[in-house]
Design goal:
single chain; 283 residues; alpha/beta; D-Maltodextrin-Binding Protein, domain 2; 10 helices; 33% helix; 20% strand; elongated
């Protein structure tokens, strides 16, 4: 049976959920029907008679480059896509959005790109065209994520806002300024009028969050989705005056049916529900 594989990034290995969202079946049928991937035959309302959903149409692989903060949600969406389309394999590669943009610019093989902000997506797609049609890829916003302060379970140090992170002796991790979560951290700290001298800077949000879970730092500036996915942390919301959010775009880089099917999975109602389960919200 085909299964998603994960390469690169700071994320954990792929997980599987029992079964798939029923909505995914109809979404994938619509995306693939009439393509070279599957054949479609009419059937009773409420039933799936897509031949590609009933049997394997042959191996079809889609390679997805995605921001590290999408690790858990995209693993779940990939599992649903594979369950709905036997023979499809989703290869997931996670990392910082800026690194992924550079990989795309350098010609790394990929069918789909999802970044943690529109700026890195624009950098990645600048001058690129879809093979065959010559059209430019069309990114679509599919989710938002909020910057929060991750703390140890129960918040033993009583951290309540950003100003607490500047306390003497407090050890903090954050993302490097060059990546989206680092850009948000810079904006929040500037709005609060504080500087975090000596804070460790990680290459992506998973790497910024890991030391908090391991007990190596007292707090971390990360996304809400990272805390939701963990049982080893709580979080403190940022005050409205300094709150920061980021928007996630996704784009098919090849225009193939299987690439479009993954994008449609993310954009579907079932995909939105999965993203919400993992701490992201509607764009």
């Amino acid at each position: 049976m085909a299964s998603s594989r994960q390469t690169g990034g700071e994320g954990r290995g792929p997980r599987r959920r029992a079964g798939s969202h029923p909505a995914f079946v109809s979404v994938i049928a619509l995306a693939l029907c009439g393509s070279s991937l599957v054949g479609c035959t009419p059937g009773p309302a409420g039933s799936s008679t897509d031949q590609g959903l009933q049997g394997s149409p042959g191996a079809q692989t889609v390679t997805v480059l995605a921001a590290a903060s999408l690790t858990d949600s995209f693993e779940a969406i990939a599992a649903d896509l594979e369950a709905a389309t036997p023979g499809t394999e989703v290869v997931l590669s996670f990392g910082s959005s800026s690194t992924l943009a550079l990989q795309v610019r350098a010609g790394a093989p990929a069918d789909v790109l999802a970044t943690a902000d529109p700026t890195t997506m624009a950098t990645a797609l600048d001058g690129l065209t879809l093979e065959g049609s010559g059209a430019a890829p069309s990114p679509v916003l599919f989710a938002r994520n909020d910057l929060v302060i991750a703390v140890a379970p129960g918040n033993p140090l009583g951290i309540t806002d950003l100003t607490d992170l500047a306390a003497d002796g407090l050890v903090v991790s954050r993302c490097a300024p060059a990546v989206p979560c680092g850009t948000l951290a810079d904006a929040a700290l500037a709005a609060a009028g504080i500087t975090l001298a000596g804070a460790s800077e990680a290459p992506d949000v998973k790497a910024a969050f890991a030391p908090l879970v391991a007990g190596q730092v007292d707090a971390a500036l990360v996304y809400r989705s990272d805390v939701v996915a963990s049982t080893g942390a709580d979080h403190v919301e940022l005050a409205p005056a300094v709150a920061q959010t980021t928007a996630y775009p996704i784009a098919s880089l090849t225009g193939t049916a299987v690439a479009d099917a993954f994008v449609e999975s993310v954009l579907s109602e079932a995909g939105a529900a999965t993203l919400a389960e993992h701490g992201l919200h509607a764009p």
